[in-house]
Design goal:
The chain is of the alpha+beta class. The chain contains five helices and seven strands, in the order E-H-H-E-H-E-H-E-H-E-E-E. Helix content is 26%, strand content 16%.
């Protein structure tokens, strides 16, 4: 029970004609990992609102999230093999993609939204950027596909690896940071 009205929304859709849908489970060792934008903006926006601060443009992502539908279609067309939206935190959703694909990963960088902290970028969630893996020989196709669709370039953040237990950020183990649902 709650003193406030709560609204839950479910959206159903379909995949347009073309390549098959991109599952979480399609990642292969050697794939390059991209994210469609900086993370942590939503968590920073919530922090600012709770603190009574003015919400920056990047932090406004909390109030008005944007689904990256065009970016998902561009990644799919360019050959993405595994993809997930960053709804529960970049770190946790990357672990989920790696779990489903049976791979590990090594991240070189984490793009942090303006006004956000690294912790908010890794575990804040509700950014709805897309995290995807693509064969190394398809990196140029990804860049061209996003550019021809008039989209900002996705950010290369690391690679998938063969050792399932190896999950690193800057050479150190990356924890499962983010929103843990009741069911796991």
């Amino acid at each position: 029970s709650s003193p406030a009205l709560t609204v839950a929304v479910t959206v159903l859709g379909r995949v347009e004609a073309g390549p098959p849908p991109v599952p979480r489970s399609g990642g292969v060792p050697g794939d390059v990992v991209f994210v469609t934008g900086a993370c942590g903006g939503s968590a920073a926006g919530l922090r600012m609102l709770r603190g009574g601060d003015a919400v920056s443009a990047a932090g406004a992502a909390y109030r008005r999230p944007v689904a990256r539908l065009r970016e998902g279609a561009a990644a799919r067309e360019a050959g993405a093999r595994a993809m997930v939206d960053v709804s529960d935190g970049l770190a946790l959703d990357l672990h989920r993609l790696a779990d489903a694909s049976g791979v590990g990963f090594a991240l070189d960088s984490v793009p942090v939204a303006e006004g956000a902290t690294l912790d908010e970028a890794l575990g804040g969630g509700e950014d709805y950027e897309l995290l995807f893996g693509v064969r190394a020989d398809r990196v140029d196709a990804v860049q061209r596909g996003f550019a021809s669709a008039g989209l900002r370039a996705p950010l290369r953040i690391g690679t998938l690896g063969a050792e399932r237990e190896t999950r690193l950020l800057d050479g150190r183990p990356l924890e499962r940071l983010g929103w843990q649902h009741l069911w796991g």
